[in-house]
Amino acid sequence: MPSPTPFTLTVKAVLFDAQNRCLLLRRSPANRHFAGCWEWPGGKLDPGEDFATGLHREVREEAGLEIELTALAGATQFEMTSAHVILLCLEARPLGTAVRLSEEHDDFAWVPLAELGRYQFSPGVGDFMLDYAKRKGAIS
Asked: What is the pTM (predicted TM-score) of this model?
């Protein structure tokens, strides 16, 4: 009997600046999947890592920012060829303003939630991001 597709937990931060814009990062060609797509900072947890520690680490690695977690944004799931992905998103505020990108991303933008529909997102994640903006009353 084939082994079942594993589940993996991914965490993302919806970072809001003082103008209530969220931080988007564009995936660079260095990524195997979804290069050119925009996303909130975050990623997979390391083995044994709790979600808050992992999210702090991922945002620091990808954007060079320290954050303060403020609320639950929501959760969703989607399938990739190698895993069932459980995505947990938390709202946060950055404790600084200087974004420093890793090689995983080649651009960033601070975007009002109402403008998320202008960006290309990876499958599964994009639907959740647009639904989040609708729940926040930013788009109809």
From this structure: 0.93
